[in-house]
Design brief:
This protein has 274 residues and is of the alpha+beta class. The chain has two domains: 85 residues; 162 residues, 2-Layer Sandwich (Alpha-Beta Plaits). It has eight helices and seven strands, in the order H-H-H-H-E-H-H-E-E-H-E-E-E-H-E. The strands form two sheets. It has a five-stranded mixed beta sheet with strand order 2-3-1-6-7, with helices on both faces. A two-stranded antiparallel ribbon has the order 4-5. The radius of gyration is 28 Å and the shape is elongated. The two termini are 44 Å apart. The structure holds 3'-deoxy-guanosine-5'-triphosphate and magnesium ion (2 copies). One magnesium ion (MG) binds next to loops.
Length: 274
Amino acid sequence: MRPLCPRDNELWSERDDGLRSRLPTMLVFASAAFLMFIRALVAGIAPFPIGASTLDPTWLAVFSYLAVGHVVFAAIFFLAMTMERREAEQRSFALSDPLTSLLNRRAFGDFAQRMARRRAGLREPLALLVLDLDHFKGVNDQHGHDVGDRMLKAFADASEDSVRPTDQLFRMGGEEFCFVLPSTTLDEAIAVAERVRRAFEAVKVETRDGITASTTVSIGIAATSFAVDIEFLLAAADAAVYEAKARGRNRVVVAEPSTLLHGEQDAIPLRRSA
Ligand code: GH3
Ligand code: MG
Ligand code: MG
């Protein structure tokens, strides 16, 4: 695990992590380096107090104040970075699922709220997939909970390889997942869902007896071009998963438009049978 306290060259190498205290910390070090550089340049006309032929108390005082000031500010900002990093890690632990490393149900709630604010009044396509592994209880019963866990992890990995970088993957609980596909039309969402379904169909998890276990996934899709609340999309895609189960599992089903009509007056989603 990465240490909480910044070290080595990570002040620069990890500059993309979004810590607010990183920039002031870098500025303190840059300022110290700049002052040392200026000192070296003007050494001829203003000799360095320590080790020079004459010890100038004014220069010594100025130099000492600057040095102490830099050390104090560096310590304060390092401490701020450490605390900020700890907060970020705690936030990330609270929002991610430890088994699959996907985002969890709580993260979905936060995401839905942010999405609702961003999409208010916007007419941009949005698709949501609800995915439920098929006969997963049977996998546990037949091969053990450990194989079930590895199956969940394998599903998450196969899914991450099959979606686009902009898609958001959540483990909602147990063997149920939800993928949010921003700026995605229904046809594109069907293509993504089919990719995930086929990729997982090919996954084989080794068991202790040397045989392999595999199962499939049922997927429900709800897509819209209107400012429909994401919770309505979730409910619609959920209903589509039940339909997929009823039709024999291992398939992709698109939500009925009527299931989306509770949200907005004019929220008529795109529709197509898969
Ligand atoms: P269906 O095809 O109708 O979805 O059937 P199913 O067996 O997949 O669904 P069901 O809801 O009956 O069973 C879900 C199982 O998922 C039961 C539960 O023990 C298992 N499960 C939930 N969370 C975990 C987990 O974190 N690890 C493992 N190994 N199993 C889990
Ligand atoms: Mg389930
Ligand atoms: Mg299931």
